[in-house]
Amino acid sequence: MEYINYNLLEYDYENNLETLNGFSFSGIAYEIRNDGCLEEVMIVGGMKNGYCRTWYPSKTRKSEEHYFNNSLHGISWEWYENGQMKKESIYEYSVKVKETEWDLFGNIIVCFKIEESSDAYILLNKLRKYYNLKEFPSH
After folding, report:
1. Which residue of 24, 29, 52, 59 is most buried, as measured by CB atoms within 10 A?
2. What's the half-sphere exposure (Cβ side, CA atoms, 13 Å) at 39?
3. What is the reported pLDDT for 139?
């Protein structure tokens, strides 16, 4: 799998694809962000498909997200720089379904679950129907 600097890619706004030399890119793109963090993203057929991982400048893991056709989809994690879990979220087609967040002492400070009466839930069910899924498959 090709591993290249993200800055070498061009974005095709008409087709919503990451391209390299005019062709949709497949591989892993990386960049050092302005905050000094390293980020890697898996791209398949020009779209984020798979993981996106970020590390602090100290080289400790900062986050990991999963994508399906450019949409957050699956479990996402975020850690404090000391390695302690900060946040765990579940997304389906970029709709947040569930999230738990902890402070530095391990206390839960956010506990979110999508409400069935919400507009987001209605949208989620339309997306599930479109993709022929009843709910996100568990890992």
Report:
1. 29
2. 14
3. 41
- One-letter identity of residue 81: E
Q: What are the tokens at 50?
A: 């798979």
For residue 112, name the pLDDT band (cuts at 50, 70, 90).
very high
Task: Kindly write down the DSSP assignment for every residue of 5-48, as one continuous string.
Answer: EGGG-EEETTTTEEEETTEE--EEEEEE-TTS-EEEEEEETTEE
Report pLDDT for 73.
Answer: 95
**Structure-token pair, residue 5:** 């600097």
- How many other C-beta atoms can be found within 10 angstroms of the C-beta atom of residue 9? 20
Across residues 117-127, what is the average pLDDT?
Answer: 94
- Give the single-character DSSP code of 82: T
CA 23 → CA 6, 9, 20, 44, 47, distances in Å?
Answer: 15, 10, 5, 12, 12
Which secondary structure element, helix H or strand E, spans residue 50, and what is its range?
strand 47-55
Bridge partners for 89 per DSSP:
76, 99
Contact 109, 102 (CB under 8 A): yes
